[in-house]
Amino acid sequence: MINYTKEQVDYMVAEYTEEPTRETVELLAEELNKSVKSIIGKLSREGVYKKTEYTTKTGEKPITKLEIVQELAELLEIPVEKLSGLEKSPKTVLKLLRSRI
Fold it and tell me: I want to staple 44 with a disulfide (CB 3.0 to 4.6 A). Which of 20, 34, 49, 88 is the partner?
């Protein structure tokens, strides 16, 4: 059983390539009477779907406190184990330390 015709696939790819947003996916799902997951799956198999990258409220790529502590250890040229427990500090403090080193 074929879920999508060639015309539907071509249409989906063209629409999504022109406007690669979640809204486009939702519109395609509504137009083609398919689920959003189905549309995303097909666009992924076609090699055009781009996962939305999460950003923080400030527009930055998210980073964990542990990753910041690892960066601090590298900057200070000490083993990360020596900074054990530092990852429990507030993220703003860790970022401040990183920016000052």
Answer: 49
**41 and 69 co-located in one domain:** no
Rounded Cα distance, 86 and 55, in Å: 24
What separation in angstroms does the CA of 92 have from each of 26, 32, 56, 72, 98? 36, 46, 13, 14, 10
Query: Which residue is it, tokens 């690892």?
Result: 70
The answer to whether residue 54 sits within a structural domain is: no
Q: Is the pLDDT of residue 1 over 90?
A: no
Kindly report whether the global pTM for this prediction surpasses the value 0.85: no
Helix boundaries (H) for 5-101: 6-18, 22-32, 36-45, 65-76, 91-100
Tell whether 52 is covered by a domain.
no
For residue 58, being part of any structural domain is answered with: no
- Residue 36 sits in which domain range? 6-45
